[in-house]
Amino acid sequence: MQASAIHKGEHMHATLSFAYPDDEEKLKDALNGERYRYALEEIHQHIKEMYKDGSDYEFVITSISSVVSNALKGE
After folding, report:
1. How confident is the model at residue 12 (pLDDT cuts 50, 70, 90)?
2. Mean per-residue pLDDT for 44-71?
3. Less packed terminus of the chain by CB within 10 Å, N or C?
4. Rounded CA gap, 3 and 34, in Å?
5. pLDDT band of 22, cuts 50, 70, 90
6. Of 38, 39, 16, 40, which is closest to residue 28 (Cα–Cα)?
7. Residue among 38, 41, 61, 36 nearest 50 (CA)
8. Is the torsion defined by CA of 62, 65, 67, 69 positive or negative?
9. What's the CA gap between 35 and 50, in Å, rounded?
10. Cα–Cα distance between 16 and 27 in angstroms, integer?
11. Whole-prediction pTM
12. Would you give the distance in Å from CA 54 to the centre of its chain?
C-alpha cells in the first residue's frame, strides 16, 4: 500500500507492506486509521464533558459505545 498526503504544506509519503492473509486485519486498520482517530477524539471529548458537567455515566458510556461501533463498522 502506498499513500501520499500533504501535511502543513509538506508532502508526506508512506509505503506499508502486509502479508496476506495473515495481516488482513492490519491492512484494514491502516486504511481506516483516520476514522479511528476521529472516533478516539470524539470519545475523548465525551469523557471530558462527562467530568466537566457531571453527566450521567450510563449515557456517556452508551455514547462512547455508539462511536466505537460506528468507527469499526465504517460509518
Report:
1. confident
2. 81
3. C
4. 13
5. very high
6. 16
7. 61
8. negative
9. 23
10. 9
11. 0.61
12. 26
